[in-house]
Design a protein that fits this description.
single chain, mainly alpha, 3-stranded antiparallel β-sheet, about 60% helix, elongated
Length: about 180
């Protein structure tokens, strides 16, 4: 029966046993070690999953701008890039509308709908401060972006910028670290 460490500690302490004065090979100490190992494993798996999700999100973002770069010849000006960013921010709007229409009146939003709305809100907040993306205003970087093979390991050779909604452009680094 899998339980978290805090529940196991609580159950043992209810027996009237002081957790700090257990014999090292007693049943209770073994239960505590198993629960601690279980919590550590869950934390490691959760951290690894979050890292993979971040990697996938960054690769998808760069792939979106690569597709736009391949579709349009020449360099991009700031206005065109801001239109691309706006289209990127609105990428899930159709699915959100579909989910809202499918929901019966008076029912709570689905988890997927909540996730999409949170992601859009987070991306819009990022755009207000500076949206991280490959630099598409420089010819050499645009050529490299068009030739990118879609792999995470190749993303380090690109140059990145942060473009704010106000039009401010700042150099950035890879991988993005907050407001670099």
């Amino acid at each position: 029966m899998a339980k978290s460490l805090s529940k196991v500690q609580k159950k043992i302490s209810k027996k009237g046993v002081n957790i700090t004065s257990l014999h090292e090979n007693s049943r209770n100490s073994q239960r505590l070690r198993r629960a601690s190992a279980r919590d550590d494993k869950l934390a490691r798996v959760s951290a690894a999953r979050a890292k993979v999700n971040q990697v996938v999100a960054l690769v998808r973002r760069v792939a979106y701008f690569q597709a736009a770069a391949i579709a349009a010849p020449g360099l991009f000006d700031l206005g065109h890039i801001q239109q691309l960013i706006q289209r990127y921010l609105e990428r899930d709007d159709e699915e959100v509308v579909k989910l809202e229409e499918e929901r019966r009146p008076g029912r709570p939003r689905s988890t997927r709908e909540d996730l999409l709305k949170q992601r859009k809100a987070m991306d819009e907040r990022e755009y207000d401060g500076g949206f991280w993306m490959p630099d598409m205003m420089e010819a050499a970087n645009l050529k490299t972006l068009r030739e990118w093979n879609g792999e995470w390991t190749q993303l380090g050779i690109l140059k990145y910028v942060r473009i704010a909604k106000s039009g401010a452009v700042h150099d950035s680094s890879f991988p993005p670290k907050g407001q670099s």
